[in-house]
Amino acid sequence: MIQNDATVLGILMLVLALVFYTASLPQRGWQRFYGVVPPLLLCYFIPGVLNSLGVINGTTSQLYPVVSRYFLPACLVLFTLGMDWPSLRKLGPQALIMMFAGTVGIMLGGPVALWLVSLFSPETVGGEGPEAVWRGLATIAGSWIGGGANQTALREVFTPSDRLFSQVVAVDVLVAELWMAALIYAAGYTTRIDKVLRANSGHIVHIQKRLEEIELTNQRIPATRDLIYLGAVGFGATGLAHWLSEQIVPYLATNYPDLAKYSLTSTFFWIVALVTFMGIMLSLTPLRRLEHVGASKMGSVFLYVLVATIGMQMDLGAVADNPGLFAIGLIWMLIHAAFIIGVAWLLKIPFFFAAVGSQANVGGSASAPVVAAAFHPSLAPVGVLLAILGYAVGTYAGYLTALMMKWVSEM
Description:
By secondary structure, the protein is an all-alpha fold. The chain has 18 helices and no strands.
């Protein structure tokens, strides 16, 4: 119904404002409602419902490409700008353990899901040539381990048909976003989940409290010049990253074309990698004090706009197009979830690391910080760094997963 992106952006901002307004109301009914349904979840799902009902069109809208290219990099800089390195070091190796556990869960989950579905619906996992289902699922493996750049790389490697690729994209988006929603929802029950996992999250809570105390002690009302500084740092770094990526990518593509299989010739990969590096470097300079005038708060605003634009790409009606593929996707994600929770339980690792490690694989740099921020905004950089690692291994691990799925489909 509405195709003008300016109007769509206005609607999304009104949705965000409505959610935040009702979440701040003191009435007991609203407090009970938001005690069960996190505000962030609504910021994500309401645009998805509007898209599914045909009010807006997330497929043709250019909002997400713009937000992901401009707001997301600026958001990453503003989040990493205030990184407290001594606190992050105290998190220990558990973050990396859960990140790689998530990768292994996806690598195992794809072939197992394909085999299970083949037992009762062999036609779903069949196909020949470009229509072979495993070729399309290979792109999901790249997306869920790394991100869109890895997915594109594997599409070029395994060349599924356009029809098949469009179907698996629907599976990718819907299942991944449902999982993200589940993680955001579960973040509100972290204490209970940690008890089940037998995990001690005291060091995470300590870090959160320490960061909150630092913020309360040093924060001040920002002047206009402070907001200009924040904009200059966020969008200045974004502009520099775009410029550098335009120099790096053609050079690598020309002189080292084999790096394409590792997504190292992807412009978006380099933009995300560069702004994250810039934010980390700036956090070691006096510019880190910009956190006291609201760097992470401005980053959070950008992040919520990103959440809304991600949500508007969700089409609930796509489930009916090819239910067999969605069955594979759902089983695949359940195996990943079971594996990562099992590892967390076995090693007594807090749920925070399991959730962020999982989303760093499944959602990449666009959404891993969202899940991390659902626990605490100061922990968003953990999601960023793990997502960058996912980009690095996504194509390679996705390639191996595709070969395993090919083997299963030919059994």
